[in-house]
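ok posting inputs for the zinc ion job
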Amino acid sequence: MSAAPSVPDDARPTVAEPAPTRLIVTEPTHARTAPAGPASAGPGPTRTALAGPALTDLTLARAEVDRSSHLRTDQAWLDAAWAAPSTKVLVVERGRVLCDMGTELARLVFVSADRAPDGVRFLLGVDAENLAYFGVAGPLSDPSRPTVRPVPLREAGPLLSDRDAGLMTHAVALGNWHETFTHCPRCGSPTDPTLSGHARRCPVDGSEHFPRVDPAMIVLVTEGRDRCLLARNALWPERRVSILAGFVEAGESAEQAVAREVREETSIAVGSVTYLGSQPWPMPQSLMLGFRAEATGTTEIIVDADEIAEAHWYSRDDLHRAVESGGLLLPPPVSIAHRIIESWYGGPLPGSW
Ligand SMILES: [Zn+2]
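and the output
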C-alpha cells in the first residue's frame, strides 16, 4: 500500500485506533476466520442515506474546560493560579494518569499543586467556576485507594465525563510530546518548555517548537446503496476488521490521502469524498480525520498483501450478522472508526474489540 514503513518506529508505541499503517496493533491471533458471504435477509436497519452525517460527541473530542491560551504567557497569573489551594493538577506519565475506576463513570484523580511531582508543567485551562487545571509530566504517585490505578487514555476515555475526557486527552498529548521531543532539531541542544508547556524553545538558537500532531485520514468506502468496505490489516488477528486509514503525506491534502490510500490498499478508485469529523488520538500524536467516500469504478478488490490481509464488501445485513455471531470484530467505541461504521450502519452494532 503506502510507502509508509509497516514497522512501528521507536517513537510510536502501539495504539489501537486501527489502520494508520505505522501504528500497528499486534495481538494474539484468533482461530476463526471472518465470513464475507453474500448479502442475505437479516435484522439490519433499513436506512439507505448515502451522505454521512457529521460526527459529534466523539469520545476524545469532548471538552468542558476552556484552554485559556491567553493566560499561557501571563507569568503572574500562572504563579498565582499554581499557588491557589483550589487548583487541580493532573499528573501524566507515559500516557497514563491515575483514575478512580470504582464507579460506572471513571474519574480523574487530581493532586494539589504542592503535592505535584517535578516535571514539565502545562496549563490545561480554566473552568466556568474559575478553577485552574494544570498538567505535570512526571511520576505517578501511589494510588491512594484500591479503586485508583494508572489508566491509559484508550481505556479511560469512554468512561470519563466530558470535562475529564478533555483534560486527559490534552494532558496525554502534551505529556507524550514533552517526553519525546526534548532536543532542538536544528542544533541538537536540549530545549526548554515555554507557553505554559505548549511550546519548547532552544536556548542556543532561539528557535521555537510546537507540539507535533500527525494528521491521519480514516475512511469508510461505500458502493451502491448498501455495501461498505472493511479490511483486515496483515498484522491483525483473524476476524478483526476496520475501515481504511493512513497518514497524510507531506504536501498532500487529506482528501488526496483518502484517494491514494484506498487505491493503494485495495485498487478501488473513490470519489465524493466527504469529511465527517475529527478526533485527537494522542497515542502518541495523531489527529484522525474521518471521511466517507464512494467507489467510482470497478468494485473488484485487489488488496496490497503487504499491508492488508483481506478486504471485502459488506451489506448492512452482512455486517449485523457477522458482528452478532462474533465472526467479525469491529474497532472499540473509543475509536472514530467505530463511530463512522455505526453512522453508516444507522445505529449501534453489537460487537467490538
Ligand atoms: Zn537549537
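notes: The domain at 60-209 is CATH 3.90.79.20 (Nucleoside Triphosphate Pyrophosphohydrolase). Confidence is low (pLDDT under 50) at residues 1-16, 18-50.
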